[in-house]
Amino acid sequence: MNGLIGKKLGMTRIFTESGESVPVTVLHVGPCIVTAIRDQESAGYDAVQVAYEEIPEKKLSKPVLGQFKKNNLKPHRYVREFRSTPELVANYKVGDELKADFFTEGEWVDVSGISKGKGFQGVVKRYGFGGGPKTHGQSDRFRAPGSLGQSSYPSRVFKGLKMAGRTGNDKITIQNLRVMKVDAENNIIMVGGAVPGAKNSLVRILK
Q1: pLDDT of 36-60, one tens digit each?
Q2: Which of 4, 15, 33, 138 is the most exposed place for a label (fewest CB within 10 A)?
Q3: Short-list 182, 203, 172, CA closest to 78
Q4: Are 178 and 205 in contact (CB under 8 A)?
């Protein structure tokens, strides 16, 4: 078991003992309930399934609700699996509760989330293109992409060319963020730097 799920609450800053200002992202982590154990015999792989954020029963479909009731667990909104090893999986059982003290101050984590969706955007915003010249008779090409390819040969646009299109709303993983502070009482951890996603969006924190 090497991670938990939680929510991004926002950003702030903290000061180190030397007086250095460090930007941090505040994450609400857990409590996460172990809902299932996967092993080689039953599933062909080793993993721990956890659930986060309690919700009313009417918010879930009957098949999903039945999985919680089978183990006498309260229904939760989010369910995720974390791959592990047989030795570590053996340390957990269904119903265990994991909180923010799962992490310790000073350790390094990877945080995954869904980035903010920007909709359909041009190449200047999407890829940082410089745009066309501001003179030489141009009046409507300031933010245009420019030439897309060749004329006589091969007379087509290559796949993968950077062009305007849907921007954001992708899964992003930020690696090697340091856990700066752990508030076990309120299930909050602070990690140095920025984390993908909007406020209250779901994140996965991996050791």
Answers
A1: 888 888 889 999 999 999 999 898 8
A2: 15
A3: 203
A4: no
